[in-house]
Amino acid sequence: MATDRLRTLLSCMLLTSSPDRASAAKTSTQYDCDVAIAGGGIVGVTLARALQASGLRVGIVEAQVPDAAIARDRSYAVSVLSSRILDGLGVWKTVFPRVGAFSRIHLSDADAPGAVEFELRDLGTDYLGFAGPHGALLSALQAAVADADSITWFCPATVADAAIDAQGATLTLNAPDENNRREVRARLLVAADGARSRVRASAGVRTRGWKYGQSCITTTFAHAAPANDTAFERFWPTGPMGVLPLPGNRCQVVWTNPHARAQELQATDANTFTTALERYTGGLLGRIELLSDRLVFPVQLLQSDRYVQPRLALVGDAAHCCHPVGGQGLNLGIRDAVAIAEVLTAAHHRGEDIGSLRVLQRYDRWRRWENVAILGLTDMLNRTFSNEWLPAVAVRRSGLWAMRRVPPVRRFSLSLMTGLLGRQPEVAHVTARA
Ligand SMILES: Cc1cc2nc3c(=O)[nH]c(=O)nc-3n(C[C@H](O)[C@H](O)[C@H](O)COP(=O)(O)OP(=O)(O)OC[C@H]3O[C@@H](n4cnc5c(N)ncnc54)[C@H](O)[C@@H]3O)c2cc1C
């Protein structure tokens, strides 16, 4: 129902079918708001939702129509902290019936003995994590903001240009319909437009990082072994393989390989692929049957030189990207979104200028080092495990031994992976919002 309302709202934003709206657009081509968000992916809409009760007016610009945006065929490992944040934002109750919840995490060095098994008692939570389909997460967020008077959508529209001055930012929108090409003026611009952020580029923010020479192949499959509540991370010398349990005896695999091998695995026939998958999952899931296309994504590490400057902030993949091992990228983005929302809301209530560097630096200080730590951890995991050099083998086997046998190491690793180690946003501690 709520998604239908959102679709109606978005189609209204096209302005083409309504003469009144079209003439309004001709006379007033500039829309003024407090915060303009470029990019209505999961991170951008999480930010809009987190600002909904702040008293700030929000404009959100998204290139894809809602149906196309939610159709992305991917599931993410959603951390315990992200689930609490989404609960505080009032969307987890809609998402939860569609996720796979796991209460065990199994880490192993390929097929070598000595796998680490994390269990619920290690963390004292109801679950250790979740596997959430992109469509379930994004549609629940879209529906949650659909009726918000304080949020205006521009969709489908792309940010063609972002000009930043001392008082604010002006976005020039490009849209399929000429009547919908307008300017959005905001006191603060937040780039949530993904890894190839146009806003970041037009603001001249440089990035550092590297490509891994690896690609991830992702697909969903059914398995013969009984429904499991275990997430696997199996580290092969060719690259890590993450397997996330979905409802109904299904799993999603995120399998890292050198580029050429990933392309081969994508192109090979389904039988050869499932045989390889059965072997690399160690037979733990029994016979496997493919349920979706195999998609391939090159992987990279990227860190923006700065997350903030006067009138501009970067969140999610626009600010940083990490290797998919451990399923951290989106979880970091969700934390960025609620962190900046908390900073902006507090500043607004104190009467501060939300676009000032002084205010934005609070977000930078909160998020930068935690993101750097996770980028470093995922890079280190990928390098030490995608490797047959003996010292690297010794280091990783000792690491796994410590996670198995040394309780503080075990708790530390699990808390880090589930997001519970860093500073927690207030929204993660509130009772679910309506
Ligand atoms: C193979 C793989 C597996 C992964 N698995 C996990 C996992 O298990 N767990 C996890 O936490 N993370 C995972 N990640 C990382 C995760 O996919 C990203 O971190 C996350 O999708 C980033 O979200 P975002 O909203 O910042 O960016 P995006 O999802 O890229 O969204 C950006 C949005 O901005 C819009 N946009 C772009 N340019 C413009 C423009 N100029 N104007 C208007 N709109 C624009 C786009 O249409 C899009 O909707 C994985 C990544 C890969 C590659």
List keywords for this structure.
2 domains, binds flavin-adenine dinucleotide, FAD/NAD(P)-binding domain, alpha+beta, 434 residues, D-Amino Acid Oxidase, Chain A, domain 2, 8-stranded mixed sheet, 38% helix, oxidoreductase, disordered N terminus, UbiH/COQ6_monooxygenase, single chain, 15 helices, 9-stranded mixed sheet
Task: Give your account of this protein's structure.
Helix 3 links the parallel strand 1 (about 30-40) and strand 2 (about 60). The protein folds into two domains: about 1-70 and about 135-210 and about 305-385, FAD/NAD(P)-binding domain (3-Layer(bba) Sandwich), CATH 3.50.50; about 75-135 and about 210-300, 2-Layer Sandwich (D-Amino Acid Oxidase, Chain A, domain 2), CATH 3.30.9. It has helices at about 1-15, 20-25, 40-50, 65-70, 80-90, 90-95, 120-125, 135-145, 200, 260-265, 270-280, 330-350, 355-385, 390-405, 405-415; strands at about 30-40, 60, 75-80, 100, 105-110, 115-120, 130-135, 150-155, 160-165, 170-175, 185-190, 205-225, 230-235, 240-245, 250-260, 290, 295-305, 310, 310-315, 320. Mean pLDDT is about 90; it is low at about 1-25. By secondary structure, the protein is α+β, with helices and mostly antiparallel strands. It starts with a helix and ends in a 17-residue tail after the last helix. It is built from 15 helices and 20 strands. It is globular and about 60 Å long. About 40% of the residues lie in helices and about 30% in strands. The strands form three sheets. Strands 5, 6, 12, 13, 14, 15, 16, 17 and 20 form a nine-stranded mixed β-sheet that branches. Strands 1, 2, 8, 9, 10, 11, 18 and 19 form an eight-stranded mixed β-sheet that branches. A three-stranded antiparallel β-sheet has the order 3-7-4. Bound molecules: flavin-adenine dinucleotide. Flavin-adenine dinucleotide binds near residues 64, 193 and 218. Flavin-adenine dinucleotide binds near residues 63 and 254. Its cofactor is FAD. Its EC number is 1.14.13.-. Keywords: FAD, Flavoprotein, Monooxygenase, Oxidoreductase, Signal, Ubiquinone. It is an enzyme of class 1 (oxidoreductase). One of its GO terms (biological process) is ubiquinone biosynthetic process.
